[in-house]
Design goal:
Layout: E1 7-10, E2 17-20, H1 30-43, E3 46-48, H2 55-63, E4 77-78, E5 81-85, E6 128-131, H3 133-139, H4 142-148, E7 152-155, H5 167-170, H6 172-181, E8 185-188, E9 190-192, E10 199-201, E11 208-211, H7 216-230, E12 236-239
Parallel strand pairs: 2-3
Antiparallel strand pairs: 1-2, 4-5, 6-12, 7-8, 7-11, 9-10
Length: 241
C-alpha cells in the first residue's frame, strides 16, 4: 500500500491541481487516499501525470470514492469492464461532441464525478476544460443568488437523441427504452456540497432542458445568462493531456 507524501500543485486560484508522487496503478494506502480526496474537495478537479492504468486499476481507483454507477446506457464500453465508457473524438466527428456539460445529471442521484484516463493523445489539441460552478455562483450578485435560490431545473438524457456519435442514440426505439429507464429529473438550481458546505450552480447546456415554474422565454434567457458566465476564463482550468 502506498502512503507516500503527495505533492499538490494548484493550476490556478479557482479550480484544478496536479498531484505528484503517487502511482494509481497500485493499491492506495489510507493516508494517500485521504490526501487525494481532500485535494479533490479543495480543487474540484485533480490531475495525475505519467500514469499507466489497466481496466482493473481504473476500476479500483474509482471504487475508492464510492459505489460505481451502472454502465452508461449510450456510450460504448470496454467489453471486459462495462462500467468504463469509451470517449472518442477526432476530425471525423461532428463538433456536437464538445458541448459543455456535467456528467450524468439526468439521473435522480447524479454521481460524485468521473475518473478519466487518456490513452490516445494527438500531437496538439485535444485539451479538456473544466469550470468551477462554485466560482460562477460566488461571482453572481447577491440579488441574483437570491433569485436563483429555490428554483429547480429539469435534466434529460434526451439530448443524446439523433446524435451521430453513438449508435444507440440514433435508434429511436432504443432511445425510447432508455428514456423509460431514465426519465427527466428535477434538481435544485443551486446545490450545497455536503462536505465543503459551498454552494454552486447545478445546470449545464448538455442536459438541462428548462427551469421549472418559469415561462419558457424567461427560463431560456436565465439559462443563457448562466451558461455565458461559465465561459469566463477565470472560472476555468484547461488541461493538456
Amino acid at each position: 500500500m502506498q502512503n507516500n507524501p503527495i505533492q499538490i500543485v494548484p493550476l490556478n486560484p479557482v479550480i484544478g491541481a496536479e498531484l505528484h508522487g503517487v502511482d494509481l496503478s497500485k493499491p492506495l494506502g489510507d493516508r494517500t487516499l485521504a490526501a487525494i480526496k481532500q485535494a479533490l474537495l479543495d480543487h474540484q478537479v485533480i490531475f495525475f501525470r505519467d500514469q499507466d492504468l489497466d481496466p482493473d486499476s481504473h476500476i479500483r481507483l474509482a471504487e475508492a470514492f464510492g459505489e460505481l454507477e451502472a454502465p452508461h446506457p449510450i456510450l460504448p464500453q470496454v467489453e471486459s469492464h462495462p462500467q468504463i465508457s469509451i470517449l472518442e473524438n477526432d476530425e471525423n466527428r461532428p463538433p456536437e461532441i464538445n458541448v459543455w456539460h456535467t456528467d450524468v445529471t439526468w439521473k435522480d442521484k447524479p454521481p460524485l464525478g468521473s475518473v478519466l484516463f487518456s490513452t490516445d493523445i494527438p500531437a496538439s489539441g485535444g485539451d479538456t476544460i473544466w469550470a468551477s460552478m462554485t466560482a460562477v455562483y460566488e461571482a453572481l450578485s447577491p440579488s441574483m443568488q437570491k433569485r436563483l435560490e429555490g428554483l429547480r431545473a429539469v435534466h434529460s438524457i434526451a439530448s443524446f437523441a439523433h446524435s451521430s456519435n453513438y449508435d444507440a442514440s440514433q435508434n429511436m426505439e432504443k432511445m425510447a427504452e432508455i428514456l423509460k429507464l431514465y426519465p427527466p429529473q428535477s434538481h435544485p438550481l443551486i446545490r450545497t456540497h455536503p462536505e465543503t458546505g459551498k454552494k454552486g450552480l447545478f445546470v449545464n447546456s448538455g442536459f438541462t432542458t428548462h427551469i421549472e415554474d418559469l415561462p419558457r422565454d424567461e427560463s431560456d434567457a436565465l439559462l443563457r445568462f448562466l451558461y455565458d458566465k461559465v465561459k469566463t476564463p477565470e472560472f476555468q482550468v484547461r488541461f493538456k493531456w
